[in-house]
Specification:
- The protein is built from five helices and 33 strands.
- It is mainly beta.
- It has three domains: 151 residues, Immunoglobulin-like (Sandwich), CATH 2.60.40; 179 residues, Cupredoxins -  blue copper proteins (Immunoglobulin-like), CATH 2.60.40; 198 residues, Cupredoxins -  blue copper proteins (Immunoglobulin-like, Sandwich), CATH 2.60.40.
- The protein has a six-stranded mixed β-sheet with strand order 11-10-13-18-15-16, with no helix packed on it.
- It is globular, with a radius of gyration of 23 Å.
- The structure holds copper (II) ion.
- The site of copper (II) ion has 4 residues, from strand 6.
Length: 595
């Protein structure tokens, strides 16, 4: 079991305080907090045998729990999680949505901010939840380990600070996931070897339970018992690997009050869509006749010709006094390709605390996202060419596919090691064309992307607008795009190619999010102020099904001074780094993406 204790700490990094002069804003940092309390957790990465869907297998878990232990904290708390890796696989943990103010060393993406925690090693994550509260989650950030290594991360407001909505009678965590009968890491190896797409999940799950629509799962069902008349807060988290999902409860309205751990204006709806990495808090009032109602999770698949699981995962929303084992009333989920439902909910979503939306922009970035097909080459022998037209799938941003280095990029930057990455990620596509209907090179024949480990440099304090444009090289698709180190205002989105003359922006009350589903065949505009030094990444949370990741890295200019975000007082990273600045090569389970 996870253990947690609370102690008061002194400000560990107060020495840094005087160096910071960041003006007060709603979402900005006022001053460096020492953390109200410190929460300690002990995570053991270990395997566990589970039986699901008529068969059993070993899965990787934290503390033999699936989903993993819930991390609880309060706004401005310090969180310390010691992770001990007892498996033969490399591992890291990412704290999804935590902005990691000056603590990017502990963000978790392997090969970006740290080397993986190798078998037998221990690594402690330490960070402060600076002005952050709400529903977060954590997950493994190494390969497909995150298929089973994930859990909720709940941050409450400070004592005495109320929610901006009526206090619920109870709250429940609902984590959506995907489950494969085969070993997730072996599946990933097979996908990498084939150059094609990933096989569909064998089941969707709610808190690890597939529900009665799947074989052998009549009793493998998540249920919530509710008292008639009471209002419940559901903390919805999509921890799935590849699939965007709809969620609905039969006959019940959901009122969205928080998205990606930031309050929203209350938005009533019948159903919601969550891409991998998105979280939503919804209120549900048990105001229907006493019965058992289905909570349903089904796919949202906007791309063409991609195989996906179409069996709905069901849990029970069961009233006290309902006949046990009664049939549950079915929930109405949208059709798998219902883009309008997704747009309608997004249209209604409004931020609650939005007084610091950047109105003036210093830097306008334009990044295309999508999937390319690269030609088979000497490096991609024939058997690896199961993508469209005998090629190899490669996700890209601005037509550049990310090559994973064998070192931690953050350490490479911190130690001024040359030759690991280049500072030339382009702020706009090298070529403008009909992104939605065309191809990047000689349409439609040449669909190659370039490969590289390229970083975009932002000056500290830059007010950034980033236009994310979906491309249709293989197929247009809704891409959930996530930034590390920042939340951002979603100021606009639309269909087709982005056109600044016709684009409509909301600079008054846009939602403040960390993951945005860029509309299928369309674009989204996000704004943020670059005030969190380090190296972060912008990535598609659902694009793991392709061999190359679409990743765009940013770093802030070193003018900020590296002292501000040096490794923690424990010097753990320095020590670990001295040994493993070059992350261990060819570990038996750590296959590399590129030979
Ligand atoms: Cu994240």
């Amino acid at each position: 079991m996870a253990t947690t204790t609370t102690t008061t700490t002194t400000a560990l990094v107060c020495a840094l305080l005087s160096l910071l002069s960041i003006s007060h804003s709603v979402h900005g940092i006022k001053r460096w907090p020492g953390g109200g309390s410190t929460r300690y957790y002990d995570f053991k990465v270990q395997t566990k045998r589970v039986t699901k869907l008529c068969s059993s297998k070993e899965i990787v878990t934290i503390n033999e729990m699936y989903p993993g232990p819930v991390v609880y904290a309060q706004e401005d708390d310090r969180v310390i999680v010691r992770v001990t890796n007892l498996t033969p696989h490399n591992a890291t943990i990412h704290w999804h949505g935590v902005r990691q103010r000056l603590s990017c060393w502990f963000d978790g993406p392997s090969y970006v901010t740290q080397c993986p925690i190798q078998p037998g090693q221990t690594f402690s994550y330490e960070f402060t939840l600076v002005q952050q509260k709400g529903t977060f989650f954590w997950h493994a950030h190494f390969s497909w380990l995150r298929a089973t290594v994930y859990g909720a991360f709940i941050v409450y407001p400070k004592p005495g600070v109320p929610y901006p909505f009526p206090y619920p009678y109870e709250e429940h965590i609902i984590i959506l996931g995907e489950y494969w009968l085969k070993d997730a890491l072996k599946l990933e190896q097979a996908v990498l070897a084939s150059g094609g797409g990933a096989p569909k999940a064998d089941a969707y799950t709610i808190n690890g339970h597939p529900g009665p629509n799947y074989n052998c799962s009549a009793n493998d069902v998540y249920r919530i018992n509710v008292v008639p008349g009471k209002t419940y807060l559901l903390r919805l988290i999509n921890a799935g690997l590849n699939t965007e999902n709809f969620f609905a409860i039969a006959n019940h309205k959901l009122t969205i009050v928080e998205a990606d751990a930031e309050y929203t204006k209350a938005l009533p709806t019948d159903k919601v869509m969550l891409g991998p990495g998105q979280t939503l808090n919804v209120l549900v009032t048990a105001n229907q006749p006493i019965s058992r109602y289905s909570m349903a999770v089904g796919p949202y698949m906007s791309a063409r010709n991609v195989p996906f699981q179409n069996i709905t995962s069901v849990g029970y929303f069961q009233y006290l006094g309902a006949t046990p084992n009664s049939i549950s009333l079915p929930a109405m989920l949208p059709r798998f390709n219902d883009n309008l439902v997704v747009k309608t909910v997004m249209d209604g979503l409004r931020g609650l605390n939005t007084s610091d939306v950047p109105k003036v922009i210093d830097k306008n970035l334009f990044v295309t996202i999508g999937v390319n097909v690269q030609k088979c080459s000497r490096k991609n022998p024939k058997k690896n060419c199961k993508g469209t037209n005998g090629g190899v799938f490669a996700a890209s941003m601005n037509n550049i596919s990310f090559i994973r280095p064998n070192v931690s990029l953050l350490e490479a930057y911190y130690r001024d090691r040359a030759g690991i990455f280049t500072d030339d990620f382009p702020g706009a596509p090298l070529k403008f064309y009909d992104f939605v209907n065309g191809a990047p090179n000689n349409a439609p024949i040449d669909t190659n992307s370039m490969n590289g480990t390229r970083v975009f440099v932002l000056e500290y304090g830059t007010r950034v607008q980033l236009i994310l444009q979906d491309t249709g090289t293989v197929s247009t698709e809704n891409h959930p795009i996530h930034l590390h180190g920042y939340s951002f205002y979603v100021v606009g989105y639309g269909t087709g190619n982005y056109n600044p003359d016709t684009a409509n922006f909301n600079l008054v009350d846009p939602p403040y999010m960390n993951t945005i589903g860029v509309p299928v065949g369309g674009w989204a505009a996000i704004r943020f102020t670059a005030d969190n030094p380090g190296i972060g990444s912008g990535l598609c949370t659902a694009i793991w099904r392709y061999i190359y990741h679409g990743v765009c890295l940013w770093r802030l200019s070193s003018r900020m001074g590296k002292d501000l975000w040096r490794p923690s007082r424990t010097h753990q990273l320095i020590t670990l780094g001295a040994r493993s600045f070059v992350c261990i090569k060819n570990h038996q389970k750590d296959f590399r993406y590129f030979p």
